[in-house]
Amino acid sequence: MGKKVNLHFGGLTLAILFGVSSSMSTAVAETQVPLQISIADFVPSTEPSLKLVGNATVDGNSLRLTEAKNWMQGVALFNTPQTLTSSRSFSAHFSMSISDPICHQGLGADGISFLIQGASDTKHAPGNGVGYAGTEMSLAVEFDTYHNGEFQDPPGQHIGLSLHGDPSSYATTLSPYTLNDGRVYYVWLEYDGASKYMEVRISDGATRPAEATMRTQVDLSGVLEDSVFIGFSASTGACNEQHEIKTLYFHNNYLKDGIKVSAAS
User: pLDDT tens digits for 216-250?
Assistant: First the structure.
């Protein structure tokens, strides 16, 4: 096992297990499964672990992908690649905030994507490319705040699953929330390579919902490689908003009940 130490981040106590081989310090989830990536705050000390492209930067306690300005794009990938199982299963949990939308009709644009990709470089596409368009051997789970009819987007803010950098999503569902209202939203992603089902959950609270917001069958065996890079992208166009990531936890296998970060007083 290793040595367990409690670390405090802004009122949250995380149990950290040292002595486990991983790319970063490992937070112990309630399932007691070591995590490959565990970021409770994107403080300046986390910046060397990231490849920041375009407008992405670590600012305060957040990973800011773009400011609320037109025609910006930002991508952040962790420098250390992660190894997936042969089934390409994984679990992820993160929190994000999209704020200050400026656009005709007050809509804002364009959104945030969670990325898993085979290469450490990226196209960091602006506007409706949401920072990932054109990145081959990639999976993007996008939280899209703008309706692009040319990509067959549903009519409203939505969640989309995109493959190989194609902004025409493989699957979509309308968001149950107004994603760019400035609140912090919590997201859980689980991919079961055995059944080939991807589940996406989103909530305005830190408790994982029982029901998936989106559940779709997709075969990632020909999309993702053994070794992948984890990160995020975002973009603005003629409309804009600020895109921030607050936390990230990643495990390179399927966890049926998702990642639940332990908190103790």
Answer: 999 999 999 999 999 999 989 889 999 999 999 99
Per DSSP bridges, beta strands 240-251 and 62-66 are antiparallel
Angle in degrees, CA 61, 66, 72, rounded to 5: 165
Q: Phi, psi at residue 167, to the nearest 5°? A: -70, -10
Q: Are 169 and 161 in contact (CB under 8 A)?
A: yes
The model's pLDDT over 104-157, given as tens digits with 9 standing for 90+, comes to: 665 788 899 999 998 887 655 555 566 676 677 889 999 998 876 666 667 789
Residue 200's φ and ψ, nearest 5 degrees, are -120, 130
- CA separation for the pair 265, 14 (Å, rounded): 10
Collect all residues with Cβ–Cβ distance below 8 Å to 143 and sequence separation of at least 6: 96, 98, 111, 112, 113, 157, 159, 175, 179, 185, 187, 202
